[in-house]
Fold:
Amino acid sequence: MTVFKIYILMIKRNIGLVLMYFGIFMGIALAMSIAGSKGNTGGFTAEKVNMAIVDLDESELSKRLIEFLKEKHNVEMSENDKSKLSEELYYEKRSVVLQIEKGFSEAALEGKNGIHMTQRPGSYSGMYISQQIDQFLGNVLAYHAFGYSISESCQKVTEQKECTVTLDDVNGNGGKIPGYVYFFEYLPYLFLAALGVALGKTLVVFRKKTIKNRMMASSFSLFQQNMQILLGFLVMGSILYVFSILLAVLIYGNNMLSVSNIGYYLLNSYVDMLAALEFAFIIGLLVKEGKRVDMIITPLSLGICFLCGVFVPQSVLSDSVQKVASFLPVHWYEKVNNLLADHAEIAGEVGQQVWQGIGIQVLFLFALAGISLGIVKYQQQER
Amino acid sequence: MIRIENLVKRYGDLVALDHLNLEVYEGEIFGLLGPNGCGKTTAISCLLALLKYDKGRITVFGEEMRPDSYEIKRKIGIVPQDVAVFPELSVRENIDYFCGLYIAEKALRKKYVREAIDFTGLEGYQKMRPNQLSGGLLRRLNIACGIAHKPKLIIMDEPTVAVDPQSRNHILEGIQRLNKEGATIIYTSHYMEEVEQICARISILDHGRSIATGTKEELKRMIKMGERITIEGVEITSEQIQLIRELPHVFQTEYDNQCLVICCSAAKKNLMRVLHFLEEEEIVFGKIFSELPTLNDVFLEITGTELRD
Structure:
């Protein structure tokens, strides 16, 4: 295992770069996890407004309207004392003052406005209350038009049940995006950048003409040399993979491990890691100097990640961009990842799509392996 | 030990090796001498089966050399022209790695690595990285990586290029010691002095062909010139030069900047005759000395160009 051992030793000497990319990755993943968990995803809560009402009409309709508003807001009946009401608005005791004018009932039946509203400057509550009053009066008038009396119409409107919204919790997290989803979303960047730099750079050293010649002149067979280098790739990739997953377990704990589709997440990310290994191998074969690997890997990994929806949701990418990205395995990784994030249960059509995505990535592995072999063969023939 | 027959290697239209024939005997230091680009490194690469060749046959230790001749390769050590070590590894790690390509047994390898370090005088630099070493030390590391596994045949491709005189002497002495310990050595260089100093037999290469092979004495006997007499600080007329040219065994003279060079064929008393002439003609001079021909003279006479060109 001479070649393997030295390969691992040399990668260990390049570990600083891997840690740098690991730091960048963890920074992005954790920042997004925190931002995601702070999001206002708990649902809509109706706001109660402090308001005063001066009822000058004192009609059936005005009284029913006041009852309707009392159910929704903190309503206090007030006398028609303009200076007192202005003072209450000024000192923010009230947000809105409603004055129901005399003759409001008749005006409302004719579709005219009989309410005077005063609100604190900069307050948006007036608009909100105005919409509720319009909704109430609109419904009363509709019933009244069908022959119901004002009293009956008001009764019907107050009896109306508010429609309820039922959340279909398909992702098993009440619509929230758990932190580990972001972790898996950004994982391709870590694999592409860290493995590309560390493994690609080391391979470049092994492929340096002088060293390669010296190794080829030795009694160590070329097949063994190549096999041990490939083993070095696989071991280092797997170490990074296991380390990443352990870190995710440490951060997200049971939250991540208890989800039923965690196996799919792990399989999908392992296949993606293998694709990143092959990517690093090709870079190592094509680039002639170690310094150039850094220069190439950084923009290339970022470019692939943006194109494939690692940093930007795939849903916001145009069709043409997605079409181009579909020639890259990361695109299919993200597609599977999105399906896993949206569905706690992987079965039926969703299961089919998940396996299809993973299967396409496996096909990419074969294709990339074919490209690598082609390059190796071409370079051997050049000699 | 090594037989190269009618070896032809082409790079497109360029013929790098043109029906090269060589034979290296066991236990000798065999020199491959020639100017840069004459085909020395290409010949070595073909010999090690690193390059495919178009025609010819190479046998090493009596067997045909192929890329997968690992048993033959086990007995060969290579010191390439360009330093081939890992910059990320220390001196000891580099030697251990390249030795490990031949020797699997850990204890034996450890012993061999220690001996290679002692042999090349790198004891004080074991933990240093290659980029911390001077050019001479780097060359020694390059040699240590090639000889650590104690090969029977060592191929050294210009191992002293860009090396200071002290390190060069150290390297040359080391090569002679390796040879005394039983290794056969092929030594390529364009420094004729080095080749003359250490090689038992020499082959002179030019344009991919071996133009002469033999011991240095045999090579020198191949050419007309047997002695070169140089007179410095001399004022001489063209008539007097003509008279010198008519002396027995003198076949060429050159006079430039008060320096007269007289080329004679091999004969006794050439210098005596010249001195007698100078005395008779009362010619005053600063310094006179006689030299035997060098390999450069051999190359010059055979090819018409200087070896250093």
Chain B touches chain A at residues 45, 48, 50-52, 67-68, 70-71, 73-74, 76, 78, 80, 82-89, 93, 97-98, 100-102, 104, 145-146 (CB under 8 Å).
